[in-house]
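From the shared-data thread, chain only:
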Amino acid sequence: MIKICTDSCCDLTKKQIEENAIRIIPLIVTLGDEEYFDGQTIKTEEIYEYVKKNKQLPKTAARSTEDFKEFFSELLADGSEVIYTGIGSELSSTFENAKRAKNELECDRLYVVDSKSLSSGIGLLVLYACQLKDEGFSAAEIANKLEIQTQHNQASFVVDKLDYLHKGGRCSAMARFGANLLKIKPRLEVVNGKIENTGKYMGQFKVILKKYVDDMLERSENIRRNICFVTHTKTDTETVQSIIDYVKSKNIFDDVVDSDAGATITCHCGENTLGILYLLEG
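Structure, as tokens:
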């Protein structure tokens, strides 16, 4: 048997996780002195309430090497082969801890792949792995194909306000003030495994999103047509649906999935963050 696993930053839907029997190790979110497991013991609404009340961000943390050893050992116990891909190595120490756990377990039935991505960008790779498993590929073949696909993964978001990025030390007070005053919305994109600001839009959040969608789809070639995620933090339902409908109207994708971002993305971006994520042909 081949088991596919990931971490809670994958932002897959509950239905996708259950239908594909995907195993997930939750990352850690700390609010003050209290630790929670992302996707299990904390709701994103609690994060917004905490930030509003305390004027500071929660902290996110990777799972330890020992945590991964326990997680992997349970999956390997019945003789299964296990493939793991989670939040990228340039974005978190999670991958290094998972890799270290693999090395210490010395098990040739365990494969650890650096997604070089985050959020539903990870989820896309996980679903791709599940597809390959269903098609009869071996664990080694799946891991190899995943390594290649990580180079062809389109993950980006538009952020409405820079308040959370400022609190997290990712932009200066002046940049935050100027951007919010001029209604500048940065486009954050995963490039070579790192988050980069690759563009900006001016105007109201719900208005500029269609321009963002146009920009991302028009510049992308060889798009894999099977699925696209519209992944977002707390955002007006009407706005989200309008973007889902707009992406569908392009007649590019077989399936356009509405995905709520989990605690990890919420902690760093705040409300009104929305992105479209999809794979390209390798």
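The radius of gyration is 19 Å.
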